[in-house]
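Need residues for this backbone.
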């Protein structure tokens, strides 16, 4: 009987019996489990990339290394006895991701796993809309609303502006923000774009309608009362224009809702103009009263501002009824 083939095994058994054998650990008996799955698609821009392996092989856990898109990221990985995982510190671009994992088992065998998956973010924004169907002038407010995933950081931009305009989540998934048009702002058919930042990255969506902004035109904006509204015999007119401008308010009483707007020198405007002055932010207030209410009485008011250089604003026309 020959012992040639069994000699190494007998020597190993003898060494173990004598306490001379240093354990080398088991061979890789369980498969590697990668995440995300090979060939899969994930919506997250910062996916957790991991490889799970047998926990009983310490050498495997200690020697595990990971590459993402040909860049080694082992130093940034979370290491445990049974897995190695990595999450990018910033959102990754959309597209295919190449991952490579290498290690050595306790019995000096090389282990390697290479796979790809795809990042395809879902659009977390449902709707972006604004309240400017026409043109916006100086001191007009553009209100933007966005319906999107709740709990994110929302902001919007007007194409051509560098500002990041913050939005507040007024109810779960509904965000709102405003922009006040300033003197000098000028945009034609500019897109309004909503943005939402979450842990998965930033999603963007444009409102279906662009806006046109004419903030370079000197004008007066009437804040209250609203044009066409019904007012008491005594009321307050508030507005905004270029700071420190002189304000001229010219009222005209009539008995037809189509009453023509008065001018400063209109002879039919018996009351003449009412002076006022805008403050450092351009706000002004004028009090107006009429002693007697007559049937079907209407009021037309023309408001003009004049700056320190003598430039006159575009007239603002206000039509009211008592």
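Answer:
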């Amino acid at each position: 009987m020959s012992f040639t083939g069994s000699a190494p095994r007998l020597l190993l058994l003898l060494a173990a019996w004598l306490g001379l054998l240093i354990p080398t650990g088991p061979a890789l008996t369980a498969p590697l489990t990668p995440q995300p799955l090979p060939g899969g698609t994930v919506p997250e821009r910062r996916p957790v990339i991991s490889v799970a392996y047998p926990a009983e092989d310490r050498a495997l856990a200690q020697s595990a290394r990971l590459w993402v898109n040909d860049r080694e990221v082992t130093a940034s990985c979370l290491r445990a006895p049974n897995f190695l995982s990595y999450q990018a510190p910033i959102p990754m671009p959309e597209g295919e991701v190449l991952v490579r994992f290498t290690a050595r088992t306790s019995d000096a065998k090389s282990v390697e796993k290479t796979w790809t998956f795809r990042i395809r973010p879902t659009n977390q924004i449902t709707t972006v809309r604004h309240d400017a169907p026409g043109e916006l002038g100086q001191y007009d407010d553009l209100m933007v609303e966005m319906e999107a995933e709740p709990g994110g950081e929302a902001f919007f931009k007007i194409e051509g502006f560098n500002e990041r305009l913050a939005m507040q989540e007024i109810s779960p998934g509904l965000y709102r923000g405003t922009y006040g048009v300033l003197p000098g702002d000028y945009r034609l058919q500019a897109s309004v774009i909503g943005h939402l930042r979450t842990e998965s990255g930033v999603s963007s969506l444009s409102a279906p309608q662009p806006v046109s902004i004419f903030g370079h035109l000197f004008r007066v904006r009437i804040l209250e009362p609203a044009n066409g509204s019904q007012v008491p015999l005594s009321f307050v007119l508030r507005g905004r224009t270029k700071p420190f401008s002189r304000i001229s308010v010219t009222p005209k009483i009539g008995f037809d809702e189509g009453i023509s707007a008065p001018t400063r020198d209109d002879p039919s405007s018996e009351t003449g103009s009412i002076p006022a002055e805008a403050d450092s932010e351009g706000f002004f207030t004028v009090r107006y009263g009429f002693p007697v209410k007559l049937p079907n009485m209407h009021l037309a008011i023309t408001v003009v501002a004049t700056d320190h250089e003598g430039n006159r604003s575009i007239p603002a026309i206000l039509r009211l009824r008592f």
